[in-house]
Design brief:
Layout (H helix, E strand, L loop, with lengths): L5 H7 L2 E4 L15 H9 L7 H11 L4 E4 L6 H15 L12 E4 L3 H15 L6 E4 L6 H8 L5 E4 L1 H9 L10 E4 L2 H6 L3 H9 L6 E6 L4 H10 L4 E5 L4
Parallel strand pairs: 2-7, 2-8, 3-5, 3-6, 4-5, 6-7
Antiparallel strand pairs: 1-8
Helix pairs in contact: 3-4, 4-5
Bound molecules: adenosine-5'-diphosphate and magnesium ion.
């Protein structure tokens, strides 16, 4: 009977969610698979952060999201958790030996490696796998060889991803959950065209989340092309 007022919750924390979609405020076993909750508890987290609460609600409702929240607010896991739930929901018609179900684009190698670490931490206990495609000391040929074994998640930088797709190391036919992380940096580093070309090769009925620490005209403009009727989430005054 004591229904929480989400409007009040948003006001208290300066959260915008337009259109309003109910947040997920707890690691609820009806929503999160038990294996995932166990791993979350092991990480020492007892509640989702504000951006996680709101992004989980929107992502699990199947909507696209344009999400802005300050650095350090927990945006990585805000998309990793719903992405994993999305993967577990898929009928595994062609298990493993195919391209990824989820693709995460990062502007830098360092970020890509860090995101891949989180993705592995949460999907490996559920028997899924991640391939990190950003290079460093690994060449395209070696990456292609690993990708051909199949995986559920690919995390990488735009140039390298275009490279491995072109060399047929993997394909994007199965991608239904797409993430563009640090969109503001992606643009300031000049990756707009490359990201656009990757997104243009992913099925249009995919779900897409775009995350950014800052929000401005450029992010707004690309979001219009990359996202489909997105829910706008802003935590605090970044947007
Ligand atoms: P952002 O991408 O918004 O800059 P990160 O995803 O890098 O933020 O997360 C920042 C820090 O918050 C990380 O050290 C992460 O482990 C921690 N963190 C993430 N989710 C939670 C949570 N639910 N509770 C406590 N700490 C968390
Ligand atoms: Mg981040």
């Amino acid at each position: 009977k004591n229904t929480p007022s989400f409007t009040q919750w948003r006001d208290e924390h300066s959260i915008t969610c337009q259109p309003p979609i109910n947040p997920i405020l707890h690691f609820d076993p009806e929503i999160f698979p038990m294996e995932l909750i166990k791993r979350i508890v092991k990480s020492g987290y007892d509640t989702p952060t504000l951006v996680q609460c709101q992004t989980l609600g929107v992502a699990l409702a199947g909507r696209d999201g344009l999400i802005t929240a300050a650095t350090g607010s927990g945006k990585t896991l805000a998309y990793i958790w719903p992405l994993i739930i999305h993967i577990l929901d898929q009928p595994h018609i062609t298990p493993n030996i195919d391209g990824p179900i989820s693709l995460i684009l990062c502007p830098t190698r360092e970020l890509s490696k860090q995101v891949a670490k989180y993705a592995k931490l949460y999907i490996e206990p559920l028997s899924g796998s991640v391939v990190e495609v950003s290079g460093g000391n690994r060449g395209t040929w070696e990456l292609c060889k690993e990708l051909k074994k199949g995986c559920e998640i690919v995390v990488g930088t735009p140039g390298r991803i275009i490279d491995v797709v072109r060399k047929k190391g993997t394909n994007l036919h199965r991608v239904t959950f797409l993430v563009v992380d640090e969109a503001d940096r992606m643009l300031s580093m000049g990756f707009e065209k490359q990201v656009g070309s990757i997104l243009g090769n992913v099925r249009p009925d995919r779900q897409t989340l775009l995350l950014s620490a800052t929000f401005g005209k450029r992010v707004e403009r690309v979001a219009r092309g990359w996202l489909k009727d997105p829910v706008r989430i802003a935590i605090g005054r970044t947007g």
